[in-house]
Amino acid sequence: MIQEADIGVGISGVEGMQAVMASDFSISQFRFLERLLVVHGHWCYKRIAQMICYFFYKNIAFGLTLFYFEAFTGFSGQSVYNDWYMLLFNVILTSLPVISLGVFEQDVSSEVCLQFPALYQQGTKNLFFDWYRILGWMGNGLYSSLVIFILNIVIFYNQAFRAGGQTADMAAVGATMFSCIICAVNCQIALTMSHFTWIQHLFVWGSVATWFLFLLLYGLMPPSYSGDVYGLLVEVLGPAPIYWSTILLVTVACIVPYLVHISFQRCFNPMDHHIIQEIKYYKKDVEDQRMWRRERSKARQETKIGFTARVDAKIRQFKVKLQRRSSTLVSQNCMPSPS
């Protein structure tokens, strides 16, 4: 039974440890199953779903800018980013915020999950990892990549970059574009999170600070090591107001569609956890007993998910039996009759 299930839960007891050894999760008492499913099951599903969708978003937003630049330069083979930028993007600059999302994210507290068991149905209905959600995040990444590339090219193309009238070279454009990517993707994951701790603040905003610190320290190294990044932040980008204004403009332009989407959804088509968050945040469970009773009654409604799953399993078993019976009849008909 445990081997046939998607996730096996074993209960250690007097019957022995065989079920525990063959299971994915082990509990000591049956009453712990409620918290394992309703609380941790709900949290883990949303964490993993949001983390994977965000992976699609940030890598599309970053990777497509390289393709756009190659097409813009006639596929010359020249990269707009320094090699160290591309190496550190997934390893350091955007890894810790994703880890914090996958470990600490909680759309509602554990007490609320136990009060509203219907939230667990979001996982069984796959509301956060369907094709609509995945394609939406991929489209958001495509939009962000276009905004980052087009705005940077338009702003820096044939335009004075510094007070002396110098135009920006490829190193300045690449560093500015990469700065926009780091700020945009980290602000995006900050908007995705519903629960913040000091660790998440440290990981998200620390990643942004790490990028500027790296650009500063790398530019202070001798030119034989830093190359065209030598003194880039201190002498070129830092004193230029257009650098900081471009980062602000591009970051805001990238996150505006997501802000509009979540605002529209919360106002006109809220999901269950949106309503419950509003109830708990504004303490409407104390002031508006009618809303509280309505959500609690939804949590006690009978669901057909388990029944549907059992019916599908019976149908599959019936089909297997029919196939076996038909194969047996065919083999019997093919056997030669005794002479």
TrEMBL record:
Q: Which Gene3D superfamilies match?
A: HAD superfamily/HAD-like
Q: Which UniProt keywords apply?
A: Magnesium, Membrane, Metal-binding, Transmembrane, Transmembrane helix
GO BP terms in the entry: phospholipid translocation
Q: Which GO terms describe its molecular function?
A: ATPase-coupled intramembrane lipid transporter activity; metal ion binding
Name by which UniProt lists this protein: Putative phospholipid-transporting ATPase 4 isoform X1
GO CC annotations?
Answer: plasma membrane
Query: What are the transmembrane regions?
Result: 55-72, 84-104, 134-158, 170-191, 203-221, 241-260
Q: Which Pfam families match?
A: PhoLip_ATPase_C
Chain ranges of the P-type ATPase C-terminal domain: 20-270
**Source organism (scientific name):** Populus alba
The UniProt entry, under InterPro entries, shows: ATPase_P-typ_TM_dom_sf, HAD_sf, P_typ_ATPase_c
Q: How does it sit in the membrane?
A: Multi-pass membrane protein
Q: Which domain of life is it from?
A: Eukaryota
Spell out the subcellular localization from the entry. Membrane
Q: What is the lineage of its organism?
A: Eukaryota, Viridiplantae, Streptophyta, Embryophyta, Tracheophyta
